[in-house]
Amino acid sequence: MQRQKSKIKIRRSSARNYSKNTGFNSKVKQLNLAIKRLSPSWRACLPLACLIVLGWSYVAVAQTPAPAGPTTADLKIALDTLWVAIAAFLVFFMNAGFCMLETGFCRQKNAVNVLAKNLIVFALSTVAFWAIGFGLMFGDGNDFIGLSGLFLAGADNSPATGDAYQGVFSALNWTGVPLAAKFLFQLVFAGTAATIVSGAVAERIKFVDFLVFSLLLVGIAYPITGHWIWGAGWLADMGFWDFAGSTVVHSVGGWAALMGAAFLGPRIGKYQDKQAVALPGHNMSIATLGCLILWLGWFGFNPGSVMAADPNAITHIALTTNMAGAVGGIAATVVAWVYLGKPDLSMIINGILAGLVGITASCAYVSIPSSIVIGLIAGILVVFSVPFFDKLGIDDPVGATSVHLVCGIWGTLCVGLFAVGPGGYPWMVDLAGKPVGPHGLFAGGGFGTLIPQIIGILAVGGMTVLLSTIFWLVLKATLGIRVTREEELEGLDIGEHGMEAYSGFLKEASPSGFSEGPSSGEISSGGDLPSTL
């Protein structure tokens, strides 16, 4: 019985195997038949296709594992660097704003001269700041001046931060971006300080003297006082705070501009019978365009000073900046309307800029309501500051001293008045997470922050006035800083550059009217009063 069962199983197994073999052979025969039906060219491709499939299989098995992607730290560095670069580009574009603003506020016959100064000054600033300025400002040294890092040379392992940083620019070890990004961002700030001077000395300074002074300012004067504050110098140790440069950039440029305007003296025709006479600018359209470009650039100037892509910090600073500028413009409009009888467009422009300058030092440390107050007072100050300097005999064609110096001082004081205190906002911490930051008088901080702010204003002002005075006196004794009376009356475009900004248009030549371009050769004696185009 058992043998019969075994024989039955064997027979069934043999039947199944025979069935399988028969089926397989049938499929092989069908495949051979299908191949025979193919054309010769298709049959020749079959071996090649088999080789390709085998090769791909081998490559898929033999390839090395894919490398690991960038870490979170790498992505943060890349994002921070991108933001710093974009902010630097915005600040650089402010040069176009200064070009338009100052040219529009000046007379037609000096347009080329103003444009040339604003264009070449950044090129000069780039070389001067790369060669010595950046090293003097941020290089390791002492509390007074940096003594390393000239020509951007020296050890540096950026973007390492804090204790991990090893290099000669320790003052910037708080920002985790490459050294090139640090330099680029600080460079555009230095160029801004030099450009401020251009407007105050416009329409009567020799072109070569302005170039030399710009080199000295960006290469020596600006870095020395900047080192005291942003280079971990003695003012920073004392507790002086200036987030984006109300003092470091704007007041320094304002002090230098004030001394330049004082040494040059007023333009011909500015004062008659001991009264200041308005010499209106020739194109308020481009002056307004310049204001708007500067307003845009300030969103790189202030938020970019975070030097990191911190969304909370950037957006808060952008809001305080915009609010102060807007309220400054409104305040200047209303005050000028009441004080002067008309809503003067030039005052509206300078009011906006005044509010932006005023908020620059404290933009990261104050609330939105505080920024409104800061902008409001800055807009009022600039309206009264312009006639004040006129009464002192300081002829400033664009109001640079009123906007950048007066409101720069006000903005620096605002840190000691309105700052919310250490850790008041999430970004007000050091690399270790410890709360830091100024504490203003009106926020319950007493005079602990306000006093260092006052000392810093006086110290930076005193040093800038001293160095600027030396520079201007040396230039006056060697090259002479002012053009001749004939050149000033004819216009610096012809006298200094031999060309006109508006060739073929009527050109101002005398207080009595216009001549048909420079070819007439007629220069009237007497005052140089403007006529309305």
Task: Give a description of the structure.
- With 533 residues, the chain is mostly helical.
- Helix content is 63%, strand content 2%.
- The protein has 16 helices and 4 strands.
- It has helices at 2-37, 40-62, 72-105, 111-138, 179-200, 207-229, 234-238, 246-264, 284-301, 311-340, 345-360, 368-391, 400-418, 450-478, 485-490, 492-497; strands spanning 271-272, 275-276, 507-510, 513-515.
- It has a two-stranded antiparallel ribbon. A two-stranded antiparallel sheet has the order 3-4.
Number of strands: 4
CATH top level assignment = Mainly Alpha
Strand order of the largest sheet: 1-2
SSE string, helix = H, strand = E?
HHHHHHHHEEHHHHHHHHEE
Low-pLDDT parts are: 510-533
Beta strand %: under 5%
Please tell me how large the radius of gyration is: 35 Å
Query: Which structural class is indicated by helix and strand composition?
Result: mainly alpha
What is the terminal separation in angstroms? 129 Å
Shape assignment? globular
Main location: membrane
Pfam families: Ammonium_transp
Family: Belongs to the ammonia transporter channel (TC 1.A.11.2) family.
Keywords: Ammonia transport, Membrane, Transmembrane, Transmembrane helix, Transport
